[in-house]
Hints:
Blueprint: H1 8-26, E1 31-32, H2 34-41, H3 45-53, E2 65-66, H4 67-78, E3 84-89, H5 93-99, H6 102-106, E4 109-116, E5 125-126, E6 129-133, H7 137-143, E7 148-151, H8 155-167, E8 172-175, E9 188-191, H9 194-208
Parallel strand pairs: 3-4, 3-7, 4-6, 7-8, 8-9
Antiparallel strand pairs: 1-2, 5-6
Helix pairs in contact: 1-2, 1-4, 2-3
Amino acid sequence: xxxxxxxxxxxxxxxxxxxxxxxxxxxxxxxxxxxxxxxxxxxxxxxxxxxxxxxxxxxxxxxxxxxxxxxxxxxxxxxxxxxxxxxxxxxxxxxxxxxxxxxxxxxxxxxxxxxxxxxxxxxxxxxxxxxxxxxxxxxxxxxxxxxxxxxxxxxxxxxxxxxxxxxxxxxxxxxxxxxxxxxxxxxxxxxxxxxxxxxxxxxxxxxxx
Length: 209
């Protein structure tokens, strides 16, 4: 069960720390100061130390953090030190892009099946992922252990798909459809409406003009 006492923005920043630590490790760095890691992630060192303090004590005063050890600890905290099996509903342009996004698999997020209601898409294979009819969802879930469901359908279909995911026991849903999903409290739903990001960017660029 997720620990909802941890602020969501802290969890987001943990992901930033992982990306930075991976870069430092690739460069051969063994030690990093909180100031340097924080600067790389666009936060201040006090914020970084506070974020990490939710989960224990890391690093040595005056010495810094062991890059490989801190990376290992944060991956364990995030749960990204294991493989996560996912399914996707909605094999349109965005859905296909996600199925073809190789970095997801490299980070431990593996699609094991995809679903659609379009007869022209059912039966296709996208990056080794078979596209099933949505009606086959219960059957496929008997064959695969699935942790996360991803929704890239039109807004009008998103709630129905989420309901089906929840019915078969999926506890984590990432929703790209531009609509809020209703769900029980024991299911975690993350909404990612890409158009809002463009709205936000337009707002700031407009202010520059």
